[in-house]
Amino acid sequence: MIHRTICALAIGVFSVTATAQDFDPNYTGTYSIIGLDPVAGELGMAVQSKAFAVGNRTMTGKGGLVVVAHQASSNPMYGAMAIQLLQAGMTPKDALDQIVRSDAQSDRRQVAILDIQGRTAAWTGGGASEWKGHTCGTNYCAQGNTLAGPAVVERMARSFETSKGPLVDRLVTALDAAQAEGGDSRGSQGAAVTIFKPLAGAAGFSDRMIDLRVDDSRAPLVELRRLVDIYWSGQLITEGNSRINAGDADVGMKMLLAARDKSPANDNAWMALASGYLKLGKKADALAALAKAIALNPSVRRQAQRNTNFTTLKEDPQFVAMTRE
């Protein structure tokens, strides 16, 4: 259900429109989408807003269980309680109903819950700022408030329903589609995307497989996409090096080239490419790639001197001149 309510506040002889953001300095007028990739076992959320650091207070998740969007007058309690109630066996709908009933200020909230089974529940309080609304479909919920109009949420939903590929890319693409319809009516500032999966985070000790944030930017979605590309570039570097070391040089080099193309300004990708070329005996190509890495990041000179992958070049005059500090 989409709720539309305007509250009038009388002060003396003047009448003005009061909204939740008038009373909450951290009000997150925003649009977001939560999604599930049931094959990969990933849950995620992407968000954009004319609000500073929007990613730090609008999402909660637990890999293998649930992801929760809590925005408008955001209260992370919704996320923490949803995790506890779903772990106790409740459905997203039952959990959300119980939390809303227990919250005296629920009228100011906008919340959506999606669990690992694809079950959804959403709430848009009448006190959230116009335009506001939500829609849930198979494996997603799209929601927003303080929007240019209903087409913002509709385009997010349609984008997710028709897109393919990794969940993180689908979520960010949905934000782009929403922005094309006007997005947050106040403009753009912050954006974020997080993917939750059990033991998929750093060293296997976290469920945050991807956690990228743009806190303050004139073009946050452009910057968020750049960060996602750097993430994929890093994944390709790891896999490409693994393939080369395992003797599958052709596939490995294709991955390293793809890493470079995914993020051309990533000096790590050029360093990996230089190392790959050298392992294949292509010294000229290796030195050219290394020169590009140094041009992007002069500190690579010091790294290259100490990197054992370049041991065979230690006495090479071009290498020595290139890496001289």
Structure characterization notes:
This protein is of the alpha+beta class and 325 residues long. It folds into 2 domains: 22-218, Aminohydrolase, N-terminal nucleophile (Ntn) domain (Glutamine Phosphoribosylpyrophosphate, subunit 1, domain 1); 232-323, Tetratricopeptide repeat domain (Serine Threonine Protein Phosphatase 5, Tetratricopeptide repeat, Alpha Horseshoe), CATH 1.25.40. 40% of the residues lie in helices and 22% in strands. It has 10 helices and 12 strands. It has a 6-stranded antiparallel β-sheet with strand order 9-10-3-4-11-12, covered by helices on one side. Strands 5-6-7-8 form a 4-stranded antiparallel β-sheet, with helices on one face. Strands 1-2 form a two-stranded antiparallel sheet. Strand 5 (59-62) and strand 6 form a beta hairpin. The longest helix has 26 residues, at 220-245. The protein is elongated.
At a glance:
This protein has 325 residues and is α+β, with helices and mostly antiparallel strands. The protein has helices at 77-87, 92-102, 151-162, 167-180, 220-245, 249-262, 267-279, 283-296, 300-306, 317-323, and strands spanning 7-11, 14-18, 30-37, 42-49, 59-62, 66-72, 109-115, 120-124, 133-137, 140-144, 190-196, 208-214. The protein folds into 2 domains: 22-218, Glutamine Phosphoribosylpyrophosphate, subunit 1, domain 1 (4-Layer Sandwich), CATH 3.60.20; 232-323, Alpha Horseshoe (Serine Threonine Protein Phosphatase 5, Tetratricopeptide repeat).
